[in-house]
## 1
Amino acid sequence: MTKIKYVLLAIICLTLTNCKTEEHEFPLDKRYWDTNDYDKAILELRFGYEDDEKKPTFDNPEQRIIVEKLTDEQNFKIVLKDNELGTKHRNAVATEFFEHWKDMHQIYQATDRKDMYVYDIEMLAVWQYGLSLQLDYFKLGNKEILESADDPNSTRVKNVINSNIRTLIDNYVIYLDEINEEKAFSEKGKTKLADGIDKYFTQLIELYPDANYSGMKKKAELMLKKSESDKVKSSLTKLIELINSKQKTEKEE
């Protein structure tokens, strides 16, 4: 009878141990994640980790694939760039991805006792994923508006389109707010922050060269005075110059 008790106790301990050491599950075998995959991954990353448990990072060889999958722009581009699919369908999918991205922002926001970001590279990767996504999201939204309108050239339709573009630009300006937290970034983080300005802000301005970037320019000028990072200041300077060049071209025309 005593031996049986010991066996049962051993089984119980083993079961509890397996529960505690169970690995987090992600759909890593899939080439592209759809919105259902994001549902599960975001839920796991936000609520499936203990407070003192390290989340997946790029510098962890075993777990970096999780962050790479999470921030892979091809996950949404494979659908949103497919011209064989209908505009309404793609716009609906873009909306789902956009809503998921807003939830993704909560995953890597932690700071330590020195007010430094614990996951600055990963947080910025999520941010930049969203900057890229929004270019397609707003473009498809405006395309659906034009296709559904009785008169695509009407003042009302044009006003809605322009309002959406202003919202997109305002959303990009929010990214520049991260420069206010520059001291919370590592040097690698500051470089990635600057790279995001170089890449995605250029794409935005090239996509909508005639839009009003006066607010973005003013924000960039303020952040240029505030930043202490040479890389960030260089990117802000290039952004201001790009906006100025577009404004000059517009005046000449």
## 2
Amino acid sequence: MGEVKPEDLVAEAHTLASRHHSSLWIGLMRVLTARLEQFPVPAEVVPVREVAHRYWYGAGGDPAQLMAAKELAWSFLKKYPPGQDVSSREGRLVRVWLCVLEPNGDDEEISMTTEWFSAMLSDLPAE
């Protein structure tokens, strides 16, 4: 995927939010979800991808669905020793899916989310 810059993600989110008359957060979640859908995920966490896609690209949904997906992602990550999930491709990808499981966020959360997303994908270990 190459280097992913936080400012590029925010610019893309602004464009999408303006085009669809939505909040910057929704625009960002759609941008991040679309980028993440390019990567395969472990079978155990396919529901995480499905919930995020339905929530951000569908008619919204119940934030409880995002919370359930978040719990599933964390359950998957528990198979790694603490802090070791970021050393593996699968672990990083599941971690980065956590970025799109928050129903709303402010400017600070947008900044932190794009920084984390960028860091996790820019140096993604090979398969």
